[in-house]
Amino acid sequence: MSRQSEIEDLLSSFEENWTSESITKFNIPYSKFHSWQSVDVEYLARELIGIDFELRLKNSGQSGEFKELPSVIQFYRNYFSAFIDTRKLTLLLLSEAIRDSKNSGREYDFRPYIKEFGKELNKFQESIEQEYLSEIEPHLSSFETHNSQSNANEFNVDWSRYKLVRLIGTGSHAKVYFATDFETGEHVAVKFLRKQFQQNAARIEAFINEAQILKNFHHENVINIRGLGQIPSGGLFIVLDWISGRSLHEQLESQEFVSEFQIRKWIHQVCMGLQHIHSRGIIHCDLKPANILLNVENQILITDFGFAKYLNDDFRQARNIQGTVSFMAPEQIDQLWGRICPATDIYAVGVILYLFLTRRLPFISETFEEIALAKLSSEPITDPRELNSTISESIASICMKCLQSEPTFRFESAAQLINAIDPISYNSN
Question: Which residues 6+ apart lie within 8 Å of 156 measured at CB?
């Protein structure tokens, strides 16, 4: 495991176990840091402190004096003093306290630190004031202007109405929390743009774009958005319906037997959702088991539109490869295979179907490059019936058609695939 991956795992564990008395949950072995470079320890400390204050802000929604600052500072100083300069660490903690004070309205007593750090405290205050004005506000204003004629109030959610209960998912750009709506008492999912991207203009625009895309959908197989909001500093969040159940990824991980009839029912619902998405001129571009939820009533809901594209986007320009390579169509990796289109999502459905039928991916390699090369070179895919002789010839044929390298050889639309996969017709035979 790389050092970066190790750090990400530690941060995720810290978040999952966080409480307002989080220092009692801090169980990273002290001896671990002896083999680390100082820059890695400093990065970990910076992220831990940021997460700690961020969660204190998001989880309270209350103003008033924060009296625990001295004990929090003392804890981190004691823990990291052998690896990080004490002055540098204290300044880091104070800067996060100032940021939290601005965001939450909580009062901190900085008097014990003014004599030694007064000059730096003033600089932090000025810097944090400028973050919102220079980076966040123009993008949010643009979003509000775009939506001023339609449902503008839906995208002006007050963050203080939500009580975060626990972290339920972490992605490359966002984190999702299970939360309670104080006003209605309902459970919701709250998706926050990750802290390190809250001053990144491109990521802010992409996050707002996801909210804009989501508000186009009104379908039983697509997740419903409740609104877009921001914490006082400008950090953005999206509020979604809470789905009680699990993802198809978790379903696969459980190793439970799933009949072909059930697989057809799930894929049929995925395609119903896709048909609605495509009818709005949108391509999902990151369809995979982790982004498909299964509620307690066995109903499919497509979620996570962070990489979604409008069908009329100009793809002639050079574009970054975005998504999960195992589920990407060749045209997502190299535009020489064509434009991103509805057939792009059909390919991903084929990978998901293959995975359920065979319990393995069509291409198995260790690296992004190896999988991408296999797809771009049209490396043959093993027929799913060779790996699972119990499945029907028809579903194996459907799966292989979805996985054609050439987009025009796949099903032309989700509607075509719906007719082919129809579980009712299969069950009556």
Answer: 144, 227, 228, 229
Contact in structure between 174 and 166 (CB atoms under 8 Å) = no
Name which of 100, 219, 235 is nearest 157 in CA terms: 235
Domain termination residue (choose one: 241, 276, 307): 241
Residue with structure tokens 């969040």? 237
| 122 occurs within a structural domain | no
Instruction: Provide the annotated binding site.
Output: 191
Reference 210, options 196, 199, 223, 221; nearest CA is 223
Q: Is residue 64 part of a domain?
A: yes
**pLDDT in the model for residue 73:** 81
Average pLDDT over residues 146-167: 64
Task: Please state, in angstroms and rounded to a whole number, the distance separating the CA atoms of residues 341 and 188.
Answer: 32
Q: Residue 233: which domain range? A: 152-241
* Pairing status of strand 236-241 against strand 225-230: antiparallel
**Of all residues in the chain, what percent carry a pLDDT higher than 90?**
38
Give the pLDDT confidence score for residue 321 in this predicted structure. 60
The predicted pLDDT at position 34 comes to 75
Please name which of 58, 65, 235 lies closest in space to residue 163, comparing C-alpha atoms. Answer: 58
In a domain, 24, yes or no: yes
pTM of the model: 0.68
Out of 144-153, 158-167, 345-354, 364-373, the most confident range is: 345-354
Q: How far is CA 343 from CA 8, 14, 48, 340, 398, in A?
A: 34, 40, 42, 8, 14
pLDDT, residue 296, reads 93
Count up the domains in the chain and report the number.
3
d(CA 331, CA 145): 34
User: Is 383 exposed, middle or buried (CB count within 10 Å of its CB: 0-12, 13-18, 19+)?
Assistant: middle
Q: Rounded to whole angstroms, how far apart are CA atoms 57 and 138? A: 24
Q: If you average pLDDT over residues 336-340, what whole number do you get?
A: 82
Quote the CA–CA distance of 201 and 313 in Å, as a whole number: 19
| CA–CA gap between residue 72 and residue 258 (Å, rounded) | 49
For 169, other C-beta atoms within 10 Å of its C-beta total 16
Indicate whether 153 pLDDT > 60: no
What pLDDT is recorded for position 148? Answer: 39
Q: Where are the beta strands (DSSP E) in 125-186?
A: 157-158, 162-170, 174-181
Binding-site residues for ATP sit at 191
